[in-house]
């Protein structure tokens, strides 16, 4: 931007500042900015990249460009692929906002089922994924989502979400959609079941808390009380991500950790204690 350099974790920050995006900092690269200008150092041995595929599924903002691809476009492709893998006869496609919206639009496009607003997010409340106390999560879902009876009443509804972590939020959402009058609720998830914790900086629950690691898909469907449930396959997710599949980390779906750790390193330290219940993520 002018004669200044700006570094950010997502390109949407540059839009705000009207700065021009130049390129990603590569894995293993150190970019040094000082009075001599910009220099790139590569002090580490070259290793295979392991980009977090979950950035495309959920973490990043849709208006960011990541590894050469706009995140919203990637999410739409995840949704199209999901519609091809798990077709359903229904009247309406809705999203769990906001991260499910791109995939829902893609699902609608590929299936020909109209997209509409069925759940409205209250943007003023915190996200709930890593809030530590059960009762706060319980409260959080009700406060942050409101179903649209006018849209849902007497319809066969496909609801698209990016992931299922514990399953408790999905169950509440299904119930909420039914209470608003939906005749059928079909859940489609734009990623495979999360079965393993992330040890690379994302504060996910332990393995035993991940419903995808302890239950089969049919058991999860029964738990969340959906008429049907379909997860995107690993191959489908990687294909829809639009890059060489070997470039991605997908350990939370497969357990294939690219950077090994000793077993006794596997305990996760909570990022937030009970006094600060607002985490950075959802579900
Ligand atoms: S384990 Fe999952 S969330 Fe963690 S870096 Fe890998 S893909 Fe991303």
What does this structure look like?
The protein is an alpha/beta fold and 283 residues long. The chain has two domains: 1-47, no CATH class; 51-265, Rossmann fold (3-Layer(aba) Sandwich). The protein has eleven helices and twelve strands. It has a four-stranded parallel β-sheet with strand order 6-9-10-11, with helices on both faces. Strands 1-2 form a two-stranded antiparallel ribbon. The protein has a two-stranded parallel sheet with strand order 3-12. A hairpin with a 2-residue loop joins strand 1 (30-34) and strand 2 (37-41). Helix 3 packs across helix 4 and helix 5 packs parallel to helix 7 (168-179). The protein is globular, with a radius of gyration of 20 Å. It starts with 11 loop residues before the first helix and ends in a 29-residue tail after the last helix. Residues 270-283 have low confidence and may be disordered. Bound molecules: iron/sulfur cluster. Iron/sulfur cluster is lined by residues 52-54, 198, 200, 202, 249-252.
Please outline the helices and strands.
Blueprint: H1 12-17, E1 30-34, E2 37-41, E3 51-52, H2 54-59, E4 65-66, E5 69-70, H3 71-85, E6 92-95, H4 101-111, E7 119-121, H5 134-144, E8 145-147, H6 149-152, E9 156-161, H7 168-179, E10 184-189, H8 211-214, H9 217-224, E11 228-231, H10 234-240, E12 248-249, H11 251-254
Parallel strand pairs: 3-12, 6-9, 9-10, 10-11
Antiparallel strand pairs: 1-2, 4-5, 7-8
Helix pairs in contact: 3-4, 5-7
The structure holds iron/sulfur cluster (SF4).
Residues 52-54, 198, 200, 202, 249-252 line the site of iron/sulfur cluster.
């Amino acid at each position: 931007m002018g004669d200044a350099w700006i570094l950010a974790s997502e390109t949407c920050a540059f839009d705000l500042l009207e700065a021009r995006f130049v390129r990603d900092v590569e894995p293993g690269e150190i970019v040094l900015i000082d009075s001599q200008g910009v220099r790139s150092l590569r002090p580490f041995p070259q290793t295979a990249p392991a980009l977090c595929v979950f950035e495309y599924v959920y973490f990043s903002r849709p208006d960011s460009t990541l590894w050469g691809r706009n995140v919203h476009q990637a999410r739409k492709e995840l949704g199209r692929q999901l519609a091809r893998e798990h077709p359903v006869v229904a009247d309406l496609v809705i999203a769990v906002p906001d991260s499910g919206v791109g995939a829902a639009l893609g699902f609608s496009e590929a299936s020909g089922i109209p997209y509409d607003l069925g759940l409205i997010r209250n943007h003023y409340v915190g996200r709930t994924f890593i809030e530590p106390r059960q009762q706060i999560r319980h409260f959080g879902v009700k406060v942050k989502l409101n179903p649209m009876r006018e849209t849902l009443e007497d319809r066969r509804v496909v609801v698209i979400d990016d992931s299922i972590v514990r399953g408790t939020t999905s169950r509440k959402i299904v119930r909420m959609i039914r209470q608003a009058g939906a005749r059928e609720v079909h859940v489609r998830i734009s990623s495979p079941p999360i079965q393993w914790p992330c040890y690379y900086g994302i504060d996910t629950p332990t393995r035993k808390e991940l419903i995808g690691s302890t239950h089969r898909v049919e058991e999860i469907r029964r738990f969340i009380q959906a008429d049907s449930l379909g997860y995107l396959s690993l191959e489908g997710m990687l294909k829809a991500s639009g890059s060489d599949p070997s470039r991605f980390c997908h350990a939370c779906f497969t357990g294939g950790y690219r950077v090994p750790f000793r077993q006794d390193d596997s305990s996760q330290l909570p990022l937030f204690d009970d006094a600060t219940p607002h985490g950075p993520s959802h579900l």
